[in-house]
C-alpha cells in the first residue's frame, strides 16, 4: 500500500512528527498502565473491568486525539508560510548587503582616483 502524498509531506515536518509521537506515546502509556494495574490485581488472567472503558475504547480515544488530515494540512501550510517569510527576509538582507558593498566599492574607487 502506497502512502498518500499528504502523509509523506506531513511526516517531513518536525512539529507534525512530534505531535504524532506524543499521541502514540500517550496511547501506549494508557494501555500499558491499565494492563499493569489489572495484572497486579489478578495474577492469572487480565479480564477487562466492567465499570471502565475497554482497551479498544481507550485506543479509539487516543487515535481520536491524533491530528486530522485537515489539521496536518493547516500545520504544513503554516510552516510553509513561515518558511516563505524567512526566505523573503533573507533575500531582502542579501540585497541590502550587496547594495552596501557596491556603495563601499564605489566610495573606495572614488577615493583611489
UniProtKB/TrEMBL annotation:
Keywords: Membrane, Transmembrane, Transmembrane helix
Top-level taxon of the source organism: Bacteria
Transmembrane segments: 94-112
Protein name stated in the entry: Uncharacterized protein
Species this chain originates from: Parasphingopyxis lamellibrachiae
